[in-house]
User: Fold this.
Amino acid sequence: MPGIMSLSPIHRRLSLPTGTETLRLREALSRRQAALALEDLFALWGYLPVETPLVDYFEVYRRLLPDESTRATYRTVDRAGEVLMVRPDTTMFVAKQLGIHLHDEELPLRVYYNEQILRHENEDDLSRNEYQQAGVELVGVQGSDGDAEVLLLLAEALKKIGAGNAVIHVGSHAVIDALIEAGMPPARERDICEALRLRDGERCLNALTAAGLDPEVLVPELFAIHACDPAAVGLRGSAKDSLPSQVADALEGLETVVRSVAALVPDVSFRIDPSEVGWHDYYTGIAFAAYTPDSDDAVARGGRYDDLLGLFGFTAPSVGFSLFARKIPAAPALVKPAARAVGTTVAERYADARSRRQKGEAVTL
Amino acid sequence: MTIALPKGRLFERVAALFARIGHDFSVGERRLVAEDRSGGMRAILVKNSDLPTYVHHGIAGLGVCGSDVIFESGHEFFELLPLPFGGTQICLAGLAEDDSWRNGTGGRLRVATKFTRFTRSFFHGQGIPVEIVRLNGSVELAPVLGLAPYIVDLVETGKTLEAHGLEVKEVLGETRVTLFANRSYYKYHFPEIDELVNRLSNVLH
Assistant:
């Protein structure tokens, strides 16, 4: 039972708590360069930095966390007996701060973050590897304009950190809402979302059948992934006529947004993928994820969550993404070894170093 | 495209299936990596229970193994195609003369198994408290030697159980051999993977 057994001194000295890591030298430098590149990009797009608390009250977020995420949180108790949670995800922490402090006149608001997160991982499964989250929130811009801005920014961010070969799959929670409008009981929402996330056709078929909808028509549409190349037009063709009108409209709306964005950045692959419904229950509109050929998991996730800030006191539409740069193999850092200053005394070496540093050269004393 | 395949008996059947669609994974003696002669695929041969780990970490984008092994791994994958061989039943078994299972154990059900995640999930799903003793093999010995009155294990013919004086008390589920994918790998490579799945489906049906 490693979870309750106290560690030996040697184990404590040689290992780190799961979910944490240490980076050194060139690896740390290349990560720092990627982080700075992202921050520069976000700033160029008019986003302002935001920093969130390292810990916050667990109860505030409990209802937003799926069971698996709750189990992965590190929690502690403060001196007043309140359960505190170490930041496991920045989006929620940002949402609370914005929900408390924002005012109408500040909208639209664009913020970015680049913070460490902490999630427990099994000691023998370090695959998630998500220690650092960089991302943006665009608050106060409704609908497709906001969606397009964030998707375009994600495309540029991926290119900026060497993941220009990523593909971005975009779905929409509006499709789930459309299923409910078409007659699916709201209680089936979570089941359908889970079936779509796992691309479990049998489960989806059973859930739709139980909901009184026609799975023969819906399942192929919900599971189809379409590349956004200009040649592919009229994707749904004849099948569209058989779909419940609400679902057909939602899929068409999704396609319109993705196509309009893809047309602006033809060197980035966008795909229409209704099985992307987001990994949190709070998604209300588009949901997307970016994948690279070599990563074992999505390198970025995001979407629209128009009701999230409202949970914390200020209702405003919001859309954003988080990027897990650690999942993208870092480009080797370009490090030129620092030169040694010339001189026999500290004063001489300092004078030499100061003059050379003014020209941009790295010099040690 | 890299696929993780299980070493042993199942490999022969999976390799025969892939050969029917033109992917020949001939492996020399003791080789653990096989390049498809057409150059389109590479197979890595790994221990059955390790297979999901390789796919989860993206070392192999695809894998073939039993649904029981996938479930025990605790990882989530896209299950693409059930294969028509290697499926079996997962059962609760105990000594033939022991019927206390049907009458209630009056406390926790003590079970020896290597399928710990499945066993806990199944019995807790039924509202039955269960105490699990983890074993990695020869679980039939547990009731015989008094380690635990019951086992949860895969049962094909039942002959091994019979040889130890055990019998199936209840069939808890069916397992099936499945072609599955790392989720991220599938999303990136879905056209090629869907095409592979279609070709396999065509020769199976």
